[in-house]
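Open question from group meeting: does this chain pack into something compact, or does most of it stay loose? Before anyone orders reagents, we agreed to write out a predicted structure and look at it together. Recording both the input and the output here so the notebook holds the full record.
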Amino acid sequence: MGRLVKKASTDQSTTIRILDSTTFLPEEGVEHNTAGIALWYRREGETLTAITEVALAALDTAHTDGGIEHIDDGYYRLDPPDGAWAAGADYVEIGGTVTGMIVIGNTHALVDYDPYDSVRMGMTALPNAAADGAGGLPISDAGGLDMDIALKDGLFCSGTVCIDPAGTNSTTWPYGFSGYPTTTIANGKVIADGRSIDLFECHGDLTMSAAMEGYTFKGHGHMEIAKRINIDSQSVEHSVFQDLVIQGTMTNATGVLNTTRFVNCDLWALSDIHAIATDGALAGVLSIG
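Structure tokens returned:
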């Protein structure tokens, strides 16, 4: 079996061997016009096609259809015409006869890819660059690469979890922002903690159901109750609120006071939060811009 050849290749050569039919020793003097020479190729599912033999000046002469030249020890370079390699077949056989001699032919598989393209084997669906290089396929040096997580972490979320009680459990944020859309702060917190994310993009009437310490909550500057965050007794120590409404109702104020310190706010606050800003643990440390 000869080397693989890409379908529709041009100017390809093959190698055949010719032996004496009596002694089986290599024949080293065959030329294009040796008596009885009749070489051919046959493609899968087709009949024989004769090759018109021509002389080659040297082994390194440019491809010439039908060219034949001795290499050594009975091996010959043969240049079949381009029709031998055309698309439409999966292999081509090459053989022939010479008077008083035995021709040992060759068979070449015809493939749809380029076996001599060291980067992507001619497959255009793959990047034409080395893996782990610029423009190439990503690899996991340590193993265990989860492309789904990498895709969300690196391309969609941009370090942000989106929270909207209307519910958009897809990668399309309704305001043109791609991230981790989630219906509740609690679900968003699970995602954020799992991805080492600390920024929440907030929109809508949201209520905390767990402590949210050390996070940044960013809103869209909507000054109505329908776009608030209700702290609801949860600790938001060392958290930052920007451009949104927060609320800690009077019934929950004690709980918020006892668990929250060092909060930075740049927001519009409802009147219910007054006690949070002026009493207890927050006195002197809550900044409202």
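Observations to bring back to the group:
The radius of gyration is 38 Å.
Confidence is low (pLDDT under 50) at residues 169-176, 249-259, 268-289.
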